[in-house]
Amino acid sequence: MKLTGQSFLGAERGSRDGASFKAVNPHTGEELLPLYFSANPAEIEQAAKLANEAFNSYSQTNGKTRAAFLRRIADGFEAHRQELAERAHLETALPMPRLLGEVGRTAGQLRMFADVVEEGSWVQARVDPALPDRQPLPRADIRSMLRPLGPVVVFGASNFPLAFSVAGCDTASALAAGCPVIVKAHPAHPGTSELAARLLVDAVAAEGFHPGVFSMVFDAGVEAGKALITHPLVRAVAFTGSLRAGRTLMDLAAARQNPIPCFTEMSSGNPVFILPGALRREPAALAQSLFGSFTLGAGQFCTKPGIVLVPDTPEAAIFFDELRALVDKAQPFALLTAGIAHEYTRAASARAAQIPLVAQAHAADISSACAASARLFNVPFEQFLATPALADEIFGPNTLLVSCDNAQDFVRAATSLDGHLTATLLGDEEDLAANRELIQILEQKVGRLIFNGFPTGVEVTHAMVHGGPYPATSDPRFTSVGSMAIYRFARPVCFQGFPQSLLPPALHDSNPLGIARLRDGKPEGA
Amino acid sequence: MKLTGQSFLGAERGSRDGASFKAVNPHTGEELLPLYFSANPAEIEQAAKLANEAFNSYSQTNGKTRAAFLRRIADGFEAHRQELAERAHLETALPMPRLLGEVGRTAGQLRMFADVVEEGSWVQARVDPALPDRQPLPRADIRSMLRPLGPVVVFGASNFPLAFSVAGCDTASALAAGCPVIVKAHPAHPGTSELAARLLVDAVAAEGFHPGVFSMVFDAGVEAGKALITHPLVRAVAFTGSLRAGRTLMDLAAARQNPIPCFTEMSSGNPVFILPGALRREPAALAQSLFGSFTLGAGQFCTKPGIVLVPDTPEAAIFFDELRALVDKAQPFALLTAGIAHEYTRAASARAAQIPLVAQAHAADISSACAASARLFNVPFEQFLATPALADEIFGPNTLLVSCDNAQDFVRAATSLDGHLTATLLGDEEDLAANRELIQILEQKVGRLIFNGFPTGVEVTHAMVHGGPYPATSDPRFTSVGSMAIYRFARPVCFQGFPQSLLPPALHDSNPLGIARLRDGKPEGA
Questions:
Q1: pTM given for the model
Q2: What is the ipTM of this complex?
Q3: Catalytic residue at A302?
Q4: Core-most of A431, B6, B61, B70, by most CB within 10 Å?
Q5: Could you read off the pLDDT of A405-427 as tens digits, one per residue?
Q6: Are A421 and A246 in contact (CB under 8 A)?
Q7: Nearest chain B alpha carbon to A441
Q8: Domain that holds residue B41
Q9: Residue A160, in any domain of the structure
Q10: A239 and A289 inside one domain
């Protein structure tokens, strides 16, 4: 597939006269061809208008039609697996096996949503039949189901160039719900984005849909994103990235003449509570697993464990020593961009000025501006509690050990937490049973509670919640991973007194789709 | 029950030293005793802290326990039916039969939510069992369910002093979800509010709950509301009222350090499309029904039909003449407050300066500052389309007839609409079938589509949607009437790798609650 560097405005390609930029190989610092061209305001307008036009027909397609479309995109990803992973490897320095796996995950997500909309129960159909004989007044027939919101803007994420980017979970769930999508490509992997967008655009054409179902714009700066999020025809926004950028988007969405739902997944310390039983078992192995988790993807996972609370038990020293040794001898990492690497070094140095940096890997042989070395911090509990900034995420391969005295420290720490994506408890069942209060408090703070696992490696399933109270996300009522992600892009619409012939099939008396519904509030057939 | 005029801070009563105010009888203009006292900042703080403390235990109560609580409140309302309605009649001038009915509706809503949480399936439990043999890596056990958000602030609405006020649908659904509630009482019916709050506080005590489960504050101005919505411990807000006030609350919620969900139900023109078949049947009867709908509750319903599109057919003249006659001879109305009456007269006069006021009732014998007379406006279609302000709601007994030439006008009008709570189509099935495009466009604009009915008289059922795109509400993904209203106050929480003994019962393998769940995305047992 030949790369041209132009935006996709439905079936057309954008101009080549906007500000240009190139991808950079984080391993070498070398610039990659081709040149990429920023979309201009007229092109943003064109993408929004196309999406709005497409919504009229695309929103009326049925689940089977949308499932075929999503599977066609998945087929395209699988057919171009090697090409996608290779370009992503050049642009992100993430290892090839991980990227090949990410292509598979991206296709798998598309197929999961295809299954969900083909089966059809996701629309939460409810039927309250008419009660013509009710006293003092009859009741009309009332039925409702979920319908798509309208055009959705998706911001590609830097850290998953496939699974959370152009055709990632945000795009897949919005398309599944019946919403056209406009992607703002992440400038750190424009080539990967162009390859992915071509597969989407081809699938739109092959299905015979209105071309406005999918567009993608490039931008060297932030203007295209701002123009999209404030465009009157845009109805929702999805984003994964930093707290600062995410909050800016939230504020723009909330300040619109007509505010719109804005889903930003931003910042999380993913606290880990090591209970005594976990240290009694195999403290060195625990340190190895934790090291693997906080350095996975060079520590650039949303769910990286960044805060680890360790009790003062005899085995804690073994755990500490092993972790220090692992960090000391860690290989250097190439982060996604020079900007991320610079911010990592800055934030880590600022933290090291506040609290002990107990281990840092050598970084002598690193030349690229994207290079970074693993770091391990340690702080006593009371200082942690007195310094709220220590709970802030530092994106990159580092973590903070908090030395605690007793279980009561854990409860106080949990109470002091803001929102996070996850909280993890490591220990035996006795530990858990002895910490019910801790669990109840953590439940108020996070979207996912993990027992004896690590938060990295988010499964794409039906029960997954990748969300949590602010600042983890903008809205704790939704998830950006797993099949429930579709609920971000739909809203209930009620039909009162409609004849069968004018109702959507999901609401017909005969339930021709065979979906799970509620009838007068009870599961149908029950 | 003796009225004292003090706020309820859990089980305690507030001070009597804040700014004071009295209710006013809209019929007579007479002030009603007792004096009501504004809550001071320390009392707001107390209410928020109590609610936050109460959340720890109240959020862990089970559905049966909360159902008993909600039914106890309903019992209290029914036992004090006459007393509640009589005080509400004095404070609102709404007729006694309507208010006695509203007590019943309030109790009915509480019982509906009791049934929902006792049955238990509302938590949307999902179970994705572990796959220990999966390649290349095993999958952990992943389960999720809805859990309550935290303390909720409810603003009482002026136009339903019982069903959308202290113990109305917002409070009932938040308590059902497991959230403590702090009500900001509407100053137009403080006595009704105090009676209702006493019933709630007594029910909290009788169930042995933490007293912070319910508080209610009075305020002569807007400071208490602002302090509540910006309080760090408050997790969500529900409001029904004007666009201006609602938008202010939205902006305050969005500007917080930690933004929170804010549900405001604000403004709706509730457009009615009269299709040719409806006029062919009984044009005079149609006029009578429409008149009944837009003057119901003195035109102070959220769903009042404020925009009526009428085709140019031979029977239209009969419809127009009958409607003019009905408005001309309408009795004067007493609106809820002098402020509402003043704003009604101001807005109606401004509109009359723009377009023809074709009928207005006599108001000669009205003395109260709350008095208002019915009004009927008429505008040609092209002028309607060219004047967006004509789609704005004027709260009170009036409506606007838009004279259209043909069905294409209807499509253009629908396309031009902002968000509304409802849209209504009147006609025969042939009309509907000939207007599929109109239906598809309207579906994008409203929460509820009505065929051959009127939008006033919102049923409290499981399929009801009382919501819609901005400016009808702040968030089109939710409803403030019907059992789905509970979903505003809950969020999914995921448990990964948890032993059975530490999981909530809704997620146990054996499904001890017998609720509808998804297992690997499929209805359990299917």
A1: 0.97
A2: 0.97
A3: yes
A4: B70
A5: 987 899 999 999 999 999 999 99
A6: no
A7: B56
A8: 33-130+137-229+477-488
A9: yes
A10: no
